[in-house]
Specification:
Elements lengths: L7 H11 L7 H26 L3 H6 L1
Helix pairs in contact: 1-2
Length: 61
């Protein structure tokens, strides 16, 4: 499994949420995780496109 980097802000918010049970930043955490997820998906699609052996496969990626 690959490693993913997250911002310090997101990391601290997750710690507060899970360990300190401080649920004030729940919406912020969800928003930041969705942005990170989208970024990962877009990066994977880009890598598939750039490494595709043929034009036909590039269009699929």
């Amino acid at each position: 499994m690959k490693q993913v980097q997250i911002s310090e802000d997101l990391f601290l918010s997750l710690i507060k949420y899970h360990i300190l049970e401080c649920y004030n930043d729940e919406e912020k955490i969800v928003k930041m995780l969705k942005e990170k997820y989208d970024s990962i998906i877009n990066r994977n699609l880009y890598i598939k496109y750039k490494t595709a052996p043929t034009q036909r496969r590039k269009r699929k990626g």
